[in-house]
Design brief:
The protein has about 210 residues and is an alpha/beta fold. It has one domain: ABC-type transport auxiliary lipoprotein component (Rossmann fold), CATH 3.40.50. The protein has three helices and eight strands. The longest helix is centred in the C-terminal third of the chain and has 34 residues, at about 175-210.
Length: about 210
Protein backbone atom coordinates (compact mmCIF):
# COMPACT_ATOMS: atom_id res chain seq x y z
CA UNK A 1 0.00 0.00 0.00
CA UNK A 2 2.83 2.41 0.85
CA UNK A 3 4.43 1.71 -2.52
CA UNK A 4 1.13 2.46 -4.28
CA UNK A 5 0.69 5.74 -2.39
CA UNK A 6 4.24 6.75 -3.24
CA UNK A 7 3.49 6.24 -6.92
CA UNK A 8 0.19 8.16 -6.76
CA UNK A 9 1.47 11.12 -4.73
CA UNK A 10 3.07 13.03 -7.66
CA UNK A 11 -0.08 12.57 -9.75
CA UNK A 12 -2.30 13.85 -6.94
CA UNK A 13 -0.05 16.85 -6.40
CA UNK A 14 -0.15 17.72 -10.11
CA UNK A 15 -3.94 17.50 -10.20
CA UNK A 16 -4.32 19.80 -7.20
CA UNK A 17 -1.84 22.30 -8.59
CA UNK A 18 -3.93 22.66 -11.73
CA UNK A 19 -6.93 24.14 -9.89
CA UNK A 20 -5.69 25.86 -6.71
CA UNK A 21 -5.47 29.65 -6.66
CA UNK A 22 -2.01 31.17 -6.37
CA UNK A 23 -3.00 33.71 -3.75
CA UNK A 24 -5.53 31.62 -1.87
CA UNK A 25 -5.15 31.00 1.86
CA UNK A 26 -6.41 28.21 4.06
CA UNK A 27 -9.89 29.72 4.48
CA UNK A 28 -12.60 28.88 1.91
CA UNK A 29 -13.21 31.60 -0.68
CA UNK A 30 -16.41 32.58 -2.44
CA UNK A 31 -16.56 32.33 -6.21
CA UNK A 32 -15.91 35.59 -8.06
CA UNK A 33 -16.67 36.51 -11.67
CA UNK A 34 -14.73 39.10 -13.65
CA UNK A 35 -15.45 40.88 -16.94
CA UNK A 36 -12.57 40.96 -19.38
CA UNK A 37 -12.70 44.39 -21.03
CA UNK A 38 -10.76 46.84 -23.14
CA UNK A 39 -9.07 49.02 -20.51
CA UNK A 40 -7.71 51.59 -22.95
CA UNK A 41 -6.32 54.72 -21.34
CA UNK A 42 -7.86 56.86 -24.12
CA UNK A 43 -9.99 55.97 -27.10
CA UNK A 44 -8.69 57.20 -30.48
CA UNK A 45 -10.52 59.99 -32.29
CA UNK A 46 -12.98 58.92 -34.94
CA UNK A 47 -11.77 58.98 -38.54
CA UNK A 48 -13.22 61.58 -40.90
CA UNK A 49 -14.22 58.78 -43.31
CA UNK A 50 -14.12 54.96 -43.19
CA UNK A 51 -11.45 53.12 -45.14
CA UNK A 52 -13.76 50.34 -46.35
CA UNK A 53 -17.49 49.70 -46.49
CA UNK A 54 -17.49 46.65 -44.24
CA UNK A 55 -15.10 44.56 -42.16
CA UNK A 56 -15.76 41.18 -40.55
CA UNK A 57 -13.94 39.82 -37.49
CA UNK A 58 -13.37 36.09 -37.22
CA UNK A 59 -11.99 34.42 -34.09
CA UNK A 60 -9.76 31.47 -34.99
CA UNK A 61 -9.93 28.26 -32.92
CA UNK A 62 -8.45 28.97 -29.51
CA UNK A 63 -6.47 26.86 -27.09
CA UNK A 64 -7.50 25.95 -23.56
CA UNK A 65 -6.43 29.30 -22.09
CA UNK A 66 -8.92 31.30 -24.18
CA UNK A 67 -11.74 28.81 -24.73
CA UNK A 68 -12.74 28.57 -21.06
CA UNK A 69 -14.17 30.82 -18.35
CA UNK A 70 -11.38 29.72 -16.00
CA UNK A 71 -8.60 32.27 -15.41
CA UNK A 72 -5.15 30.83 -16.02
CA UNK A 73 -1.86 31.39 -14.22
CA UNK A 74 1.62 30.01 -14.74
CA UNK A 75 4.48 29.42 -12.31
CA UNK A 76 6.76 28.00 -15.00
CA UNK A 77 6.99 28.45 -18.75
CA UNK A 78 4.38 26.44 -20.71
CA UNK A 79 2.84 25.04 -17.48
CA UNK A 80 -0.58 26.40 -16.54
CA UNK A 81 -3.09 26.11 -13.76
CA UNK A 82 -6.46 27.76 -13.12
CA UNK A 83 -7.71 29.85 -10.23
CA UNK A 84 -10.12 27.75 -8.24
CA UNK A 85 -12.63 30.44 -7.25
CA UNK A 86 -12.25 33.06 -10.00
CA UNK A 87 -13.87 32.98 -13.45
CA UNK A 88 -14.49 35.15 -16.49
CA UNK A 89 -18.12 36.08 -17.15
CA UNK A 90 -17.53 35.08 -20.79
CA UNK A 91 -14.93 32.96 -22.57
CA UNK A 92 -12.18 35.22 -23.97
CA UNK A 93 -12.50 33.62 -27.41
CA UNK A 94 -16.03 35.06 -27.55
CA UNK A 95 -15.47 38.29 -25.61
CA UNK A 96 -12.37 39.56 -27.41
CA UNK A 97 -13.96 39.78 -30.91
CA UNK A 98 -16.79 41.86 -29.41
CA UNK A 99 -14.32 44.17 -27.70
CA UNK A 100 -12.34 44.59 -30.91
CA UNK A 101 -15.56 45.24 -32.83
CA UNK A 102 -16.40 48.07 -30.42
CA UNK A 103 -12.92 49.56 -30.79
CA UNK A 104 -13.03 49.42 -34.61
CA UNK A 105 -16.52 50.93 -34.66
CA UNK A 106 -15.47 53.76 -32.36
CA UNK A 107 -12.53 54.57 -34.62
CA UNK A 108 -14.66 54.37 -37.78
CA UNK A 109 -12.25 52.11 -39.64
CA UNK A 110 -15.16 50.67 -41.65
CA UNK A 111 -18.69 51.86 -42.30
CA UNK A 112 -19.87 48.59 -40.73
CA UNK A 113 -18.01 46.14 -38.51
CA UNK A 114 -19.41 42.70 -37.76
CA UNK A 115 -18.43 39.26 -36.49
CA UNK A 116 -18.50 36.19 -38.69
CA UNK A 117 -21.89 34.53 -38.35
CA UNK A 118 -23.81 37.81 -38.38
CA UNK A 119 -25.96 38.62 -41.46
CA UNK A 120 -23.47 41.01 -43.03
CA UNK A 121 -21.44 40.93 -46.24
CA UNK A 122 -17.88 42.24 -46.32
CA UNK A 123 -14.91 42.10 -48.66
CA UNK A 124 -12.44 42.35 -45.79
CA UNK A 125 -11.86 39.87 -42.97
CA UNK A 126 -9.78 40.30 -39.83
CA UNK A 127 -8.99 36.94 -38.20
CA UNK A 128 -7.72 37.00 -34.61
CA UNK A 129 -6.21 34.17 -32.59
CA UNK A 130 -5.38 34.23 -28.89
CA UNK A 131 -1.93 32.77 -28.33
CA UNK A 132 -1.92 33.29 -24.57
CA UNK A 133 -3.92 35.09 -21.89
CA UNK A 134 -2.68 34.34 -18.37
CA UNK A 135 -1.18 35.59 -15.12
CA UNK A 136 2.56 34.89 -15.15
CA UNK A 137 3.66 34.37 -11.54
CA UNK A 138 7.12 32.97 -12.25
CA UNK A 139 8.38 36.09 -10.43
CA UNK A 140 5.98 37.44 -7.79
CA UNK A 141 3.68 39.33 -7.81
CA UNK A 142 3.67 38.54 -11.51
CA UNK A 143 2.44 40.10 -14.71
CA UNK A 144 -0.53 39.72 -17.04
CA UNK A 145 0.46 38.38 -20.46
CA UNK A 146 -1.68 38.66 -23.58
CA UNK A 147 -0.54 37.63 -27.07
CA UNK A 148 -2.81 37.97 -30.11
CA UNK A 149 -2.19 37.04 -33.74
CA UNK A 150 -4.07 39.06 -36.37
CA UNK A 151 -4.47 38.29 -40.08
CA UNK A 152 -6.12 40.54 -42.64
CA UNK A 153 -7.74 38.93 -45.71
CA UNK A 154 -9.19 40.21 -48.97
CA UNK A 155 -12.19 37.91 -49.37
CA UNK A 156 -12.64 38.67 -53.06
CA UNK A 157 -9.19 37.43 -54.02
CA UNK A 158 -9.06 34.99 -51.08
CA UNK A 159 -5.62 36.33 -50.28
CA UNK A 160 -4.04 37.13 -46.94
CA UNK A 161 -2.91 40.73 -47.06
CA UNK A 162 -0.95 40.90 -43.80
CA UNK A 163 -0.19 39.02 -40.61
CA UNK A 164 1.26 40.24 -37.32
CA UNK A 165 1.51 39.17 -33.68
CA UNK A 166 0.83 41.63 -30.88
CA UNK A 167 1.72 41.19 -27.22
CA UNK A 168 1.56 43.07 -23.95
CA UNK A 169 2.75 42.42 -20.39
CA UNK A 170 1.31 44.40 -17.49
CA UNK A 171 2.60 44.11 -13.88
CA UNK A 172 0.07 42.93 -11.30
CA UNK A 173 -0.30 44.43 -7.84
CA UNK A 174 -0.58 41.06 -6.08
CA UNK A 175 -0.25 37.38 -6.91
CA UNK A 176 -3.97 36.60 -6.93
CA UNK A 177 -6.89 36.66 -9.31
CA UNK A 178 -8.47 40.10 -8.72
CA UNK A 179 -5.45 42.23 -9.68
CA UNK A 180 -4.62 39.73 -12.42
CA UNK A 181 -7.96 40.40 -14.15
CA UNK A 182 -7.38 44.15 -13.94
CA UNK A 183 -3.95 43.80 -15.52
CA UNK A 184 -5.21 41.40 -18.20
CA UNK A 185 -7.83 43.95 -19.28
CA UNK A 186 -5.09 46.60 -19.41
CA UNK A 187 -3.06 44.23 -21.61
CA UNK A 188 -6.06 43.89 -23.93
CA UNK A 189 -6.20 47.69 -24.22
CA UNK A 190 -2.48 47.90 -25.04
CA UNK A 191 -2.72 45.21 -27.72
CA UNK A 192 -5.71 46.94 -29.34
CA UNK A 193 -3.80 50.25 -29.21
CA UNK A 194 -1.13 48.66 -31.41
CA UNK A 195 -3.50 46.62 -33.58
CA UNK A 196 -5.74 49.46 -34.76
CA UNK A 197 -3.11 51.56 -36.56
CA UNK A 198 -1.75 48.38 -38.13
CA UNK A 199 -5.18 47.49 -39.51
CA UNK A 200 -5.62 51.03 -40.83
CA UNK A 201 -2.21 51.08 -42.51
CA UNK A 202 -2.81 47.73 -44.19
CA UNK A 203 -6.28 48.68 -45.40
CA UNK A 204 -5.01 52.00 -46.75
CA UNK A 205 -2.45 50.11 -48.81
CA UNK A 206 -4.67 47.24 -49.94
CA UNK A 207 -8.16 48.72 -50.31
CA UNK A 208 -7.46 51.23 -53.13
CA UNK A 209 -5.64 48.56 -55.15
CA UNK A 210 -8.59 46.19 -54.78
CA UNK A 211 -11.10 48.66 -56.24
Amino acid sequence: MRALLALLAPLLAFGLAACVSVGIGSEPAAQAYYLLHDAATAMPARRAAPLVDALLIQPTPAGALADTVSIAYSRRAHEYGYYQFAFWTERPVRQLPRLLQQRLEARGVAAAVGIVGEPMRADWLLAIGVETLHHDVSALPGQARFVLTAELFDRRSRMRIARRQFEASVPTARADSAPATIALSEAVGQVFDALLPWVEDELQRAAPAAR
